[in-house]
Amino acid sequence: MTAKNTDTSYGNVAKVFHWGMFLLLVGMVIVGIYMHKLPSDTPEQMQYKMGLYNDHKSFGILILILVVLRLGWRMVNAVPKMPDTMSNLENLSAHAMHVLLYVIMFAQPLFGWLMSSYGGHTVKFFGLELPALADKDKAMGGFFHEAHEVTAMLLIVAFVIHAGAALFHHYVRKDDVMERMSLRPKKSE
Length: 189
Ligand code: HEM
Ligand code: HEM
Hints:
Layout: H1 12-37, H2 43-75, H3 88-119, E1 123-125, E2 128-130, H4 138-173
Antiparallel strand pairs: 1-2
The chain binds protoporphyrin IX containing FE (HEM) (2 copies).
């Protein structure tokens, strides 16, 4: 296995980005939904909730940084060709889904940052205070809160379709699409 992509497989760097960000995104969605529902009636409850909000924000900004690096890496690399057995329409829809997943990975943390900025709340990246992206505006804060929720739902739907397609390739088509994003080395290597 090589660090860089080849015409037939993703390299180690792309694979670590893919699966590392997969774990981070799943964690973010679960923690996001959990923390949103937490009560904040007592000071202790409030402290616990705000602690989770801060962690959620830090990891969200980390995702924003990682997606920039990931896209940069993808742009200076070869993108593996789809198997010949795939039709043009299938190629196009796979590509469109990858574009959509990138858009969501950018938009979701950006909407979170905008929601916090418009809401007048600080955003810290593991303790380091980041600048507000906008001045306080309650209506805009509400708008980006909605946007943050809608994008999370879109992420879940896109993820299910994308992962379903990967499993379809593996178990029905029995081609190498899943294999080339797999972290396990091929038997021949
Ligand atoms: C890809 C990264 C992210 C994902 C997948 C994500 C996902 C979520 C989800 C699913 C929720 C629960 C939505 C709800 O039920 O209201 C949530 C809430 C929240 N997120 Fe994110 N988020 C991300 C990044 C960020 C960032 C970067 C920030 C801020 C800098 C942020 C700030 C918040 C806040 C403040 C809430 C709580 C809203 C409330 O309880 O009213 N998120 N997030
Ligand atoms: C169980 C979960 C997942 C499975 C089984 C899976 C599987 C795969 C496979 C097999 C490929 C390679 C497709 C090809 O050869 O062209 C791929 C690529 C890709 N996947 Fe996933 N994936 C999963 C989750 C995710 C998630 C959560 C995201 C992002 C939100 C994501 C984003 C991408 C992107 C953007 C690509 C294009 C390659 C790149 O630029 O990294 N995947 N995935």
